[in-house]
């Protein structure tokens, strides 16, 4: 199945992708009572799991950290790694160290895995990997984050332990492979006079729908060649859903109906602009390698 995106053939994979997981067939190998989807971007992979029965996921010889997001209050996961074992309940962002590890997901859990570009099997096994074979891979290993200042460890951050603070942008957690922004839930439609269109110069964004529905407004960059220009996208997407926004595309998201709306944004490699904002990255002390001297708040969705 192809992504719901306009056609185009830029030199790299630079097309926005809108994946409605209600319509996309789960990955090959999904168990009958569990559904798994795997979507990649230029430098990372997102694996989304809806579990209706206990299931175990094993990683062997993992070259770098990866992240697991237990995304609902009902989520229950157990992680066993070379650095220890944790049993996690509720909403949490978990950083798993390199090496061998095992994640057991209990029934009625909604869990998201996030892998960097060195997880070659995950990159190659993504359901949209054919797009990157067609357009060409583009990764930047040179932008990898240094090892954690406190050493590799199994780290668990319970997101509900962090009350809302208008001085920062959501709840941002990082690892060496990327940053997760676990937004606070919002009620009802977004004010259409206060949207925040913006672009990222040299990295992709992945937006994951946990709850509610959104219209994603995306404008692809223009080149000197008129034939390469693409029409603007104004794409509605329900939950669960995954959106990949390529670098340089102007974009913003808009909740459009009543009810609760909840998103996660993921970026890989980690964003140094966020790391430089004092107090924004909630686990910055575990990965502190930059001067936290900047200030200011900017909405980025």
Mean pLDDT: 88
Query: Given the helix and strand composition, which structural class is it?
Result: mainly beta
Overall helicity:
under 10%
Alpha-carbon distance between the two ends = 27 Å
Tally of helical runs: 3
Which oligomeric state applies?
single chain
Beta-strand content estimate: 35-45%
Tell me the number of strands: 20
Question: Major sheet, described briefly?
Answer: 7 strands, antiparallel
Pick out the low-confidence regions. Answer: 1-11, 291-298
Order of helices and strands: EEEEEEEEEEHHEEEEEEEEEEH
| Alpha-carbon Rg, integer | 18 Å
Shape: globular
SSE order and pairing:
Layout lengths: L16 E4 L13 E7 L3 E8 L3 E8 L3 E5 L5 E6 L2 E6 L2 E5 L2 E7 L3 E8 L3 H6 L3 H7 L19 E4 L13 E3 L4 E4 L3 E2 L17 E7 L2 E6 L13 E5 L3 E5 L4 E6 L4 E8 L4 H4 L26
Antiparallel strand pairs: 1-18, 2-3, 3-10, 4-9, 5-8, 5-10, 6-7, 6-9, 8-11, 12-13, 13-20, 14-20, 15-18, 15-20, 16-17, 16-19
């Amino acid at each position: 199945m192809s992504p719901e995106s306009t056609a185009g053939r830029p030199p790299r994979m630079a097309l926005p992708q809108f994946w409605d997981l209600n319509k996309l067939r789960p990955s090959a190998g999904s168990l009958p009572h569990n559904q798994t989807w795997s979507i990649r971007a230029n430098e990372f992979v997102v694996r989304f799991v809806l579990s209706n029965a206990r299931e175990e996921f094993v990683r062997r010889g993992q070259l770098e950290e990866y992240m697991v997001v237990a995304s609902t209050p009902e989520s229950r996961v157990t992680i066993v790694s070379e650095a220890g074992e944790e049993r996690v309940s509720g909403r949490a962002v978990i950083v798993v160290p390199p090496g061998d590890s095992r994640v057991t997901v209990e029934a009625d859990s909604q869990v998201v895995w996030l892998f960097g570009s060195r997880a070659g099997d995950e990159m190659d096994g993504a359901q949209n990997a054919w797009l990157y074979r067609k357009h060409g891979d583009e990764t930047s290993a040179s932008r990898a984050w240094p090892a954690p200042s406190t050493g590799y460890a199994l780290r668990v951050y319970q997101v509900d332990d962090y009350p809302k603070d208008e001085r920062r942008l959501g709840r941002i957690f990082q690892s060496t492979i990327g940053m997760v922004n676990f937004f606070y839930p919002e009620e009802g439609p977004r004010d259409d006079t206060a949207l925040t269109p913006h672009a990222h110069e040299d990295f992709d964004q992945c937006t994951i729908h946990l709850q509610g529905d959104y219209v994603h407004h995306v404008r692809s960059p223009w080149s000197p060649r008129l034939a390469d220009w693409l029409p603007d996208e104004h794409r509605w997407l329900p939950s669960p859903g995954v959106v990949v926004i390529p670098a340089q595309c102007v974009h913003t998201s808009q909740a459009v109906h009543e009810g609760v709306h909840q998103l996660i944004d993921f970026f890989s490699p980690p964003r140094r602009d966020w790391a430089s904002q004092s107090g924004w990255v909630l686990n910055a002390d575990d990965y502190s390698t930059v001067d936290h001297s900047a200030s200011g708040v900017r909405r980025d969705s």
